[in-house]
Design brief:
The chain is an alpha/beta fold. It has one domain: Rossmann fold. It contains 13 helices and five strands. The protein has a five-stranded parallel sheet with strand order 2-3-1-4-5, with helices on both faces. Helix 3 packs parallel to helix 12 and helix 4 packs across helix 12. The radius of gyration is 22 Å and the shape is globular. Keywords: Kinase, Transferase. Pfam families: PPK2. This is Polyphosphate kinase 2 family protein. One of its GO terms (molecular function) is polyphosphate kinase activity. InterPro entries: P-loop_NTPase, Polyphosphate_phosphotransfera, PPK2-rel_1, PPK2-related.
Amino acid sequence: MTGHDTHKLSRNILAALPARYRVDGTKPFHIADHDPEDDGGLGLDKAQGKALLKLSRKRLSELQELLYANGTTSMLIVLQGMDTAGKDGTIKHVMSGVNPAGVSVSSFKQPGPQELLHGFLWRVHIVAPSAGRIGIFNRSQYEDVLVTRVHPEMLEREHLPGAINTDAFWQGRFEDIRHFEHYLARQGTVVLKFFLNISREEQRERLLARLDDKEKRWKFSTSDVKERQFWDKYQCAYEEAVGHTSRPYAPWFVVPSNHKWYARLVVMETIIDALEALKQKPPVMDPAFATSLDRYRDELMSEKPD
């Protein structure tokens, strides 16, 4: 495959990926309907996938620069997935070509004592992206309908009134998340949510790879093994969370992630598609200010070199 062919494939075929993996919030959502081995039928190997990623990264950099320059719209990217699904790697490879001044990454682990004194959305809202910036959530508000759904005993630390771990309680949390994301969208934030979908066997192989490689053992946590025992419960929790919160103003995308290169392409093309839809142009400079810059340039040009 030549460079020209790769570029043509990137723009003509990969541009259709966002719609392929977008969740239809009007229909029941079942993870079993989504194949984590899917590679789009592109017939590419890992090296060719990386070549496509490089080309798409350039386009993403251009669009992110426009977002930052205009300073009117922001973007929130939510990454969720089982342990080893590739959240960290996706952030590293997808965003490596953009201006770091316009991007922030927030990770949400178990809430601390101060965070537990507030509502579950408090710690999320305070780090939402400001105008012109891209904010990435490595885990997110969805931990509070995933981990706590699988381990409801954790709710006892949250100083909550009334009954907890009931159908009404969880429906209320889904409603709160929908309202929060709708609020962000009305304030000018483009919300994109990605579920990195891996198979149980793929997770097993990735955990073994961490254990077999001494340089990667630092990534391994005993909690990875513990949480793997709750695989089926997490799948049910994800089905509930995605099904109840995928809306036009904050869509979910189920990204097949057994092939890391393909997952990164899907995420990148979805971000590109959303940024292109904004149809942003370079900011128009005030004529008087532009004239002053021309004069300043002339002054610099007239100076004699030291």
